[in-house]
Amino acid sequence: MSAVFTRSAALIRPQLQRLRSPHSPFSPASLLAVFGVQSLRLPCASSRLSHHRQTAAAAAFTTSAIRAKNVTVTFIEPDGNEVKATGEEGTNLMELAHENDVDLEGACEGACACSTCHVILPDSIYDSLPEPSDEENDMLDLAFGLTDTSRLGCQVLLSPEMEGMRIKLPSATRNFYVDGAKPSHH
Amino acid sequence: MFSRSLRVLGARANRRALSACYLRTRCLSTTLNSQAEPVTNHNVPVGESIPAQSSVMPIYLDAQATTPLDPRVLDAMMPYMTENYGNPHSRTHKYGWETEKAVDIAREQIANLIGAHPKEIIFTSGATESNNTSIKGVARFYKGKKNHIITSQTEHKCILDSCRVLQEEGFEVTYLPVNKGGIIDLNELKAAIRPTTALVSIMAVNNEIGVIQDLKEIGKICHENRVFFHTDGAQAAGKIPLNVNDMNIDLMSISGHKLYGPKGVGALYVRRRPRVRLEPIITGGGQERGIRSGTVPSSLVVGMGAAAALSARELDYDYQHISKLSRRLVDGIQSRVSHVVRNGDPNHIYPGCVNLSFSFVEGESLLMALKNVALSSGSACTSASLEPSYVLRALGAEDDMAHSSIRFGLGRFTTESEVDYVVDNVQAHVNRLRDMSPLWEMHQEGIDIKSIQWSQH
């Protein structure tokens, strides 16, 4: 795709996978998504697909998307590079990172089946969030560089309280890219 | 071979004696017939000792050092040493699937022994590794916010050494003293807990004196103060009832070879709710929840699981059998030999561990005199050094009493006739050694040993 479409493509790509829509990027649901009309995401991956099919089409008729706030957070990459990212309330951190080309991998695409989207939150935000589920904790056990304020990025949703939050990324993931290779974006 | 064994033990040989004898003499079946040695009657104390080259083994009374493999455990392990040799982490073929299933069953068996969920059991190479992982792992994970550890002075060497290593790394460690009976003071524990305390580690049953700590109360105190509670359950698992939820235990170490299982395997219980996080000391492919990477030794683990299942089923029976033998041993010795002190609070003691101090007799010489009995003075881990037991020192025992202590370890396969033999021999040899002892002579004359000023050489 040419550079003109790159930004929209970056927006479409995650949505495409979630919606499992036909290959054409111009289906009604994805077009709506391109124009910034996004539905609220649920934490549980399994019901996301069906929910999106219903709400993506209906989103045009709701005003909730318009009322949803934008939250700005900062990702601190392992090499010290800071990336400011703005997302809608309800986006999970992994998606937000992908949308802003932050070096965070999400191998299972938010299915809570890996530990590659491991992020380290500040103490105050970590304490205010609900306890992670057993499944998330089991996956976190396998994460590299675990701390006591670690969470899986795909399970943490943006909320207005997180405005200005500084999210630290661990120096490595469970994948052995010791040669400096980077995982390709899915 | 069996008829010879029956003759050795007399007509009173019961099933346990048979299995015990089977364990001791099964390896001798090839030699016994060819050499035609004189058969020893264990019911009469021997005047001469059995020569060292003889293939007859002494009576085993060192259950705290290790326990014989239960034949039923060996039966469970055999298929995984011969035909089912797959790597349990191989997910692509039947060898792996079958072995993984067996490992999962073993995990459940060990979890049932302590009242845990199977997902909370991690297999390690033994209780030493489990202790190292839990203490160093928990301390290092919470290093930023918590830097204090509490343990007791009578812990196993691997725990004390791990604490010492952490002290070098900048942690603070409180070593709680014990009272004369070997029990820690709960008020002292409460006072020692700080907001920066990460872990409290108190062993359930002491390996030298057999003292049982009040785990339920300690667990309650730790839970109230939101401190993790680790207990070294190597000598306790399968011997006394344990429940990690009732006792608020967050981490527990279990040893395979103390449970009539194989050596080289152990388990670590790590609580999932509320989650205990720790920094692994062995990292790699992320096996065992990332806490202990490496291929799980399927045959050893299956053996340990079988041993745990047997212990869970036979816990009450074994406890009664061992209590009976323990009373027989202690009463027998104390009634026939004077100036014998039992180390450890008799109201909070595991009967299978009898630690006696014989005044005016040196423990090592008594050990050597009791050649036909496999015993220990102090603990197996200190047997190479000359340091008197630090556990006995913590009890307040004087150096001379610490040096004169012997530990008798009774197990599932110990028989009454073995205990009677030991009592007879102890009486004979202690009296013989005391006859030679100048301190005993002085004591008989009424001189107070403590008042003597010994001249230095």
TrEMBL record, chain A:
Residues 71-173 form the 2Fe-2S ferredoxin-type domain. GO terms for biological process: P450-containing electron transport chain. InterPro entries: 2Fe-2S_ferredoxin-like_sf, 2Fe-2S_ferredoxin-type, Adrenodoxin-like, Adrenodoxin_Fe-S_BS, Beta-grasp_dom_sf. One of its GO terms (molecular function) is metal ion binding. Its cofactor is [2Fe-2S] cluster. Keywords: 2Fe-2S, Electron transport, Iron, Iron-sulfur, Metal-binding, Transport. GO terms for cellular component: mitochondrion. It holds the Pfam family Fer2. SUPFAM superfamilies: 2Fe-2S ferredoxin-like (SSF54292). The keyword Lipid metabolism does not apply. Belongs to the adrenodoxin/putidaredoxin family. PANTHER family: 2FE-2S FERREDOXIN-TYPE DOMAIN-CONTAINING PROTEIN, FERREDOXIN/ADRENODOXIN. This is 2Fe-2S ferredoxin. The gene is YAH1.
UniProtKB/TrEMBL annotation, chain B:
It is an enzyme of class 2 (transferase). Its EC number is 2.8.1.7. Keywords: Iron, Iron-sulfur, Metal-binding, Mitosome, Pyridoxal phosphate, Transferase. Its cofactor is pyridoxal 5'-phosphate. It catalyses: (sulfur carrier)-H + L-cysteine = (sulfur carrier)-SH + L-alanine. GO terms for cellular component: L-cysteine desulfurase complex; mitochondrion; mitosome; nucleus. Pfam families: Aminotran_5. InterPro entries: Aminotrans_V_dom, Aminotrans_V_PyrdxlP_BS, Cys_deSase_IscS, Cysteine_dSase, PyrdxlP-dep_Trfase, PyrdxlP-dep_Trfase_major, PyrdxlP-dep_Trfase_small. Residues 59-422 form the Aminotransferase class V domain. The keyword Iron applies. One of its GO terms (biological process) is tRNA thio-modification. GO terms for molecular function: cysteine desulfurase activity; iron-sulfur cluster binding; metal ion binding; pyridoxal phosphate binding. PANTHER family: CYSTEINE DESULFURASE, CYSTEINE DESULFURYLASE FAMILY MEMBER. Belongs to the class-V pyridoxal-phosphate-dependent aminotransferase family. NifS/IscS subfamily. This is Cysteine desulfurase, mitosomal. The gene is NFS1.
